[in-house]
Amino acid sequence: MAKKLPKTDVVIIGVGWAGGIIASELTKQGLSVVGLERGKERVTEDYYMAHDELRYALRYELMQDLSKETITFRGNEKIRALPMRQYGSFLLGEGVGGAGVHWNGQTYRFLPYDFEIRSMTEERYGKDKIPPGMMIQDWGITYDKLEPYFDKFEKMAGISGEVNPLAGKRSNEYPTPPMLHTPSMKMFVEAAKKLNLHPYTVPSANLSESYTNPDGISRAACQYCGYCERFGCEYGAKADPVVTVIPVAKKTGKFEIRTHSYVRRILHSGGKATGVMYTDMTTGEEIEQPADIVVSTGYVFNNTRLMLLSKIGKPYDPATGKGVIGKNYAYQVIKGNAVGFFDDQKFNLYAGAGSLGVCVDDYNGDNFDHSDLKFIHGGNIAHTFTGQRPIQNNPVPEDSPRWGKEFKANSLKYANSVLTIGSQGSSMPFRHHYLDLDPTYKDAFGDPLIRITFDFEEQDRELARYLSDRCGDIMKEMGTDRILKMKELGPYEITTYQSTHNTGGVIMGASPDTSAVNNYMQMWDMENLFVIGASAFPHNSGYNPTGTVGALAYRAAEGIVQYSKKGGLLV
Amino acid sequence: MSEQDQHSQQNENREATKTKESQRMSRRKFLTRSGYAVGGVVLGGLLGYLIPKEETKPATPPAPQQQQKNYNEALMFFTQEQYAITQAAVERIFPADDNGPGAKDLGVAFFIDHQLAGDWGFNARDYMQPPFYVGEKTQGYQGRINRREIFYIGLRELQNYSQKKYKKDFPALSPEEQDAVLTAFQNDEVNLTTISASGFFNLLRSSTLEGVYSDPLYGGNKNMQGWAMRDYPGNQMTYTNIIEKDYTVVPPQSLRDHL
Ligand SMILES: Cc1cc2nc3c(=O)[nH]c(=O)nc-3n(C[C@H](O)[C@H](O)[C@H](O)COP(=O)(O)OP(=O)(O)OC[C@H]3O[C@@H](n4cnc5c(N)ncnc54)[C@H](O)[C@@H]3O)c2cc1C
Ligand code: SF4
């Protein structure tokens, strides 16, 4: 029998960005919140010896321990899914702050088009534009409705940026000015302007100047230290739940974080959640935490896995297209890029910040005409300057060997002379892409792992090629000596890092037939259970996801407070 | 020297002096100058634990006059034979040339030895649960064998193949012969039963680069010479002063300089 603890108002599963926002907003409103986090406590002081590429970037110091839990993957239903035994394609967060500790901080808002993608695509191009099996659907909310929550997230995090001329309307400018520009960023801006594009500075959660947010939290300016993505920030300059929302929640005296607490089931009876069961990793003890409201914020995979393990909601069945849990798993098409080798020009590539960069959205969303194209949507194209650390960055021209004398000479020659323009292609859901429980492989407790069935489609191959060519156009205009471009997207593989922008599985929408949660992230089938994260995205846009995750979390917080007073479905 | 070169040369000198200055600059000064204190509020617990240390000792310990024995240069995992094979192999992957030292002089074989001795060698944070099946390439490594065992087998097979082909041990081969052996492994022309020859080669290659370029604290990148070859400044507290500038060479610092 599990030990049963006293009841709390709200229990949160996982204390990353989504969990941290919920904790701060709810405790401010007087609710008592318990946050269960499977990893350890984290503080800024941990990162004073953190400029260590081997430990953090290659040995994944801050990420989920795969020996305890991983995912399994197969390209399609005909092959056997096998475990991701080592990291590659994406990196999972663990510990207080979640992946929000070691993210880059590029903080975009999805486009108005994203939220009404099916209606707007059909309206402009007709129904036939959407190929069979592509499961795009409207999100059950519009950009305009979500705008105040984007604004709230940006103010909390202090996002540094300038207005994107091709995005949705903003109620306010960014709270802090854009980041400094490197010479290569200036080259990109000039080149893009010559091509009649609309360049702007990447919106950054690395602060361009010191900033005090509406919660009274003060943070220092980014030092462009070059150790950002995969690292924690020793200055607190990178917005991270640990230096923003979590201290606000703690200060209320209403928030208790329990670390080393692995949530394994959401408990429920009579259609309502009653609490959660978790294992205390330090003692092995199983503990029941009862709560009036349960909030799942364990990232895409564990949000979906917990629903399936706890038998909540109807599992998705790809054969019939019915059911919702596990549906619309999507990712990102990130490989369309252009690498420019400069023979006589060097750049300070060792420096940089996670979200330092310039970009264009001329080929994102429906900002361009798709009538003659074999894909919908598009992607943000950016030249980022994030710090080229030496183990992972040894680009050499295509015809160069990969080791030996010539490799060494070339890799040294180009170490400070290679610029990249990359794209973040959107990812559309398909009927046969989904998440379910693996029939064979188990986690450290003996529970089934989550299984991904996913591959790139014709849509993705066309999109990647197109974006790669557009990256090449800009690179050419920047005056490089030779360009290396992606030629073929190839199959999706789990072995090389692409992005930690997984989406779907517990998606939002306007109806319980096609979605798992409503636009307050409230489960249609269980009104006191809220499931928050990119798991709610019905498709993935051509941007990094966290700005939109943050906005949805702020909206959910409002819904939860409302629910705690009145109960019932909020929509 | 072209004008461009001269320009960056001057920059280089100027930056070199500046960085020495900033090494001496106390963390208190640094934090104040960089706007770390916001509106008079000192942020985080940072200052508390940084400043006392800084004021009691210099950031960089004075270099010893004489070359001292490095007691870290000993073996935790490899036998001396395995060490010799590794050293010969990594030197072919990243050889000494006009640019600077090769993997051998950078201590890469010690680096790999030390890494294999720890949790990485045991794949401690990888998912190693059965069942094991041969998968698609897209599904990644599916073997049951850990990195220690891969090296153990791989090095022995390098030796076997060298003996079979040239009647000599791998370290005794000419550089060209060594390259030929490594190429055969890279291209899976060697048939191994327990591990994949190319898998072993790729592991050897990636750990060579790790040993050349990781912080010297791990035993490779000796005296930061790996970084020096590509003007990599190691880790610095700030680049705000150069981020907008043209190419600037900053003399490297290692984590040791921050203790
Ligand atoms: C290297 C990297 C770079 C990135 N860069 C960007 C970027 O530039 N811009 C951007 O928008 N996004 C970026 N992201 C993505 C971003 O980090 C995520 O979108 C964001 O952190 C998601 O927040 P979350 O709260 O949903 O999940 P997470 O931050 O992953 O937090 C989930 C938390 O839940 C905990 N948890 C999970 N399951 C359980 C359980 N069963 N019991 C207890 N606890 C549990 C986890 O340990 C974790 O702490 C990046 C991600 C990575 C890894
Ligand atoms: S680049 Fe800036 S925000 Fe990122 S870790 Fe360094 S100082 Fe912090």
Give a quick set of tags describing it.
heterodimer; A: 571 residues; alpha/beta; FAD/NAD(P)-binding domain; nine-stranded mixed beta sheet; six-stranded antiparallel beta sheet; 23 strands; globular; B: 259 residues; mainly alpha; 46% helix; disordered N terminus; binds flavin-adenine dinucleotide; binds iron/sulfur cluster; GMC_OxRtase_C (chain A); GMC family oxidoreductase (chain A); oxidoreductase (chain A)
Main beta-sheet strand count, sense and barrel state of chain B: none
How would you describe the shape of chain A? globular
What would you call the structural class of chain A? alpha/beta
Strand content of chain B: under 5%
CATH top level of chain A is Alpha Beta
Number of domains in the coordinates of chain A? 1
Written account of the structure:
The complex is a heterodimer of chains A (571) and B (259). Chain A is α/β, with parallel strands linked by helices. Chain A is built from eleven helices and 23 strands. Chain A has a single domain (12-566), classed as FAD/NAD(P)-binding domain. Chain A is 22% helix and 20% strand. In chain A, strands 1, 2, 3, 9, 10, 11, 12, 22 and 23 form a nine-stranded mixed beta sheet that branches. A six-stranded antiparallel beta sheet of chain A has the order 6-15-16-17-14-20. Chain A has a four-stranded mixed beta sheet with strand order 5-4-19-18, covered by helices on one side. Chain A is globular, with a radius of gyration of 23 Å. The model of chain A has no long low-confidence stretch (mean pLDDT 97). Chain B has a domain at 80-229. In chain B, helix 6 (147-166) packs across helix 7 (175-186) and helix 7 (175-186) packs across helix 8. Chain B has helices at 3-24, 27-33, 46-56, 80-93, 108-117, 147-166, 175-186, 197-213, 225-229. Chain B is mostly helical and 259 residues long. Classes of the chains: A alpha/beta (571), B mainly alpha (259). The structure holds flavin-adenine dinucleotide and iron/sulfur cluster. Residues 206, 222-225, 227-228, 231, 233, 235, 237-238, 353-354 of chain A line the site of iron/sulfur cluster (SF4). Iron/sulfur cluster is lined by residues 206, 222-225, 227-228, 231, 233, 235, 237-238, 353-354 of chain A. Chain A: Keywords: FAD, Flavoprotein, Oxidoreductase. Chain A: Belongs to the GMC oxidoreductase family. Chain A: This is GMC family oxidoreductase.
